[in-house]
């Protein structure tokens, strides 16, 4: 949305958005159908008037004959912007929000926007940004889409995705960041990506579940840049965990949980095979380097 001149304070950019949308609707409706959402990459700016104007335009033009909207308005936000600036009890300007899967390069040299922000875990940890997936007072839309835009997500894209899903992500995007990254087709993981999407589609029913539960799992491998990212879900009558090891070596992890029956089998979500069972509320899990998956019981 920056390309539409939202900082100029005049109507030129907004009028161009309306014009280009209508041209696409008329001349290339098939391309318009492929549009998933309207996107604003807002990393640190607490704008309001410009966002409201864009939001009002989207809500007025991207609708069917009954006024029902086709697509959501997605904004990339971060710690300093926070979605309570754009979605609260008074107004709802955005529908989706996202965060980065890796540290931003300006975190260490931007005291103006980040001074006083309380981070969970290591300030420079690759997954410190996922702290925003937790419940934050005043935030009405949890961060649901995360963006991969650095080499962190190149070699181990599957592990990166599952770590984000464990934290509460509902989807992800790959962002070239103005061309600083090569085309996605050149990434080492792109060749295997079609098979990976089959796994993600099978996981959709679980992904749609709330990313918080009344029960918790404790792990001997801590949740940090070299540890185990672990998320819990209620799934029908089952309990499930999404996990991703950030370690480059094989790990033996002891998991502990309260109120679980002895000898209760633990099943791999994708294969349907038994991987072990709970014994006295404990389970020893062998995790391969950068291993990830979903277990249910």
Main features:
22% helix; alpha/beta; elongated; Immunoglobulin-like; 2 domains; 297 residues; five-stranded antiparallel sheet
Identify low-pLDDT runs: 103-129
How would you sum up the global shape? Answer: elongated
The main β sheet shows up as:
5 strands, parallel
| Assembly type | single chain
Give the % helix.
10-25%
Radius of gyration: 21 Å
Q: How many distinct beta strands?
A: 13
Strand order of the largest sheet: 1-2-3-4-5
User: Tally the helices: what do you get?
Assistant: 6
Distance between the termini: 45 Å
Average pLDDT figure: 80
Strand content: 15-25%
**Helix-strand makeup class:** alpha/beta
Domain count, please report it. Answer: 2
Order of helices and strands: HHEHEEHEHEHEEEEEEEE
Lay out the secondary structure.
Elements: H1 12-27, H2 29-33, E1 38-41, H3 49-61, E2 73-76, E3 96-100, H4 111-114, E4 145-148, H5 157-167, E5 171-174, H6 193-207, E6 217-219, E7 228-235, E8 238-245, E9 251-257, E10 264-268, E11 274-278, E12 282-287, E13 292-296
Parallel strand pairs: 1-2, 2-3, 3-4, 4-5
Antiparallel strand pairs: 6-9, 7-8, 8-13, 9-12, 10-11, 10-13
Helix pairs in contact: 1-3
Give a short overview.
With 297 residues, the chain is α/β, with parallel strands linked by helices. The chain folds into two domains: 2-207; 217-296, Immunoglobulin-like, CATH 2.60.40.
Structural commentary:
With 297 residues, the protein is α/β, with parallel strands linked by helices. The protein has 2 domains: 2-207; 217-296, Golgi alpha-mannosidase II (Immunoglobulin-like). The chain is 22% helix and 23% strand. It has 6 helices and 13 strands. The protein has helices at residues 12-27, 29-33, 49-61, 111-114, 157-167, 193-207, and strands at residues 38-41, 73-76, 96-100, 145-148, 171-174, 217-219, 228-235, 238-245, 251-257, 264-268, 274-278, 282-287, 292-296. It has a 5-stranded parallel beta sheet, covered by helices on one side. A 5-stranded antiparallel beta sheet has the order 7-8-13-10-11, covered by helices on one side. A 3-stranded antiparallel beta sheet has the order 6-9-12, with no helix packed on it. A hairpin with a 2-residue loop joins strand 7 (228-235) and strand 8 (238-245). Helix 1 packs parallel to helix 3 (49-61). The longest helix has 16 residues, at 12-27. It is elongated. The protein starts with 11 loop residues before the first helix and ends with a strand.
């Amino acid at each position: 949305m920056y390309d539409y001149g939202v900082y100029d304070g005049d109507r030129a950019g907004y009028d161009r958005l309306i014009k280009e949308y209508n041209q696409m609707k008329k001349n290339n409706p098939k391309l318009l159908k492929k549009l998933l959402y309207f996107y604003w990459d807002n990393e640190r700016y607490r704008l309001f008037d410009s966002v409201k104007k864009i939001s009002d335009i989207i809500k007025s033009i991207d609708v069917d004959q009954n006024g029902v909207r086709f697509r959501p308005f997605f904004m990339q936000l971060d710690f300093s912007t926070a979605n309570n600036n754009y979605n609260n009890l008074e107004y709802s300007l955005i529908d989706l929000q996202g965060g980065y899967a890796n540290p931003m390069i300006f975190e260490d040299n931007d005291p103006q926007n980040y001074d006083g922000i309380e981070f969970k875990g290591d300030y420079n940890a690759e997954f410190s940004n996922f702290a925003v997936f937790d419940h934050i007072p005043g935030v009405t839309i949890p961060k649901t889409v995360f963006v991969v835009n650095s080499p962190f997500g190149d070699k181990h894209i599957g592990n990166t995705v599952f770590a984000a899903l464990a934290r509460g992500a509902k989807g992800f995007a790959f962002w070239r960041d103005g061309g600083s990254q090569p085309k996605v087709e050149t990434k080492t993981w792109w060749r295997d990506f079609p098979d990976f999407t089959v796994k993600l589609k099978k996981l959709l029913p679980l992904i749609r579940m709330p990313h918080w539960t009344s029960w918790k799992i404790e792990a001997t491998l801590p949740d940090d840049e070299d540890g185990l990212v672990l998320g819990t879900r209620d799934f029908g009558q089952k309990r499930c965990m999404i996990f991703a090891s950030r370690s480059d070596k094989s790990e033996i992890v002891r998991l502990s949980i309260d109120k679980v029956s002895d000898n209760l089998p633990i099943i791999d979500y994708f294969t349907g095979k038994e991987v072990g069972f709970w014994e006295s509320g404990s389970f020893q899990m062998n995790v391969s380097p950068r291993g990830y998956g979903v277990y249910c019981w």
